[in-house]
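During the reporting period the student researcher (J.K.) took over the structure-prediction task from the postdoctoral fellow and processed the backlog of single-chain submissions. One of the processed entries is reproduced below for the supervisory committee.
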Amino acid sequence: MSKKKINSFGGLIYSTDPDFKLPGTNSKVTQTPDPSQQQLRIILDTKHRAGKAVTLVYGFTGSSTDLEELGKKMKSYCGTGGSVKDGEIIVQGDHREKVLHWLQKNGYKSAKRV
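J.K. obtained the following structure tokens:
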């Protein structure tokens, strides 16, 4: 485990200012566009998964919390497990039609099956 040097914080050890932010830290919040402006793609993937099929949804732009919320709703609708990794929603099994139908029902007009 690497130790951070005190010099990397400019000699700062402790600050009592509640609004203080370290120099060089960006607190830029990405805004999630409307569902109708999202360019989502749906594919079936079996690579590196021991032959098991998963449905991948990628192309989401926005905050990671919104992506995780979308993934949770999608997995709940399909009644299966999965995860959200590297900007992709992974739903276990071949649920391309269900996912496409759910996305279109919720306003994601540009969702496409690849």
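The committee noted the following: The chain has a mean pLDDT of 84.
J.K. will present the remaining backlog at the next meeting.
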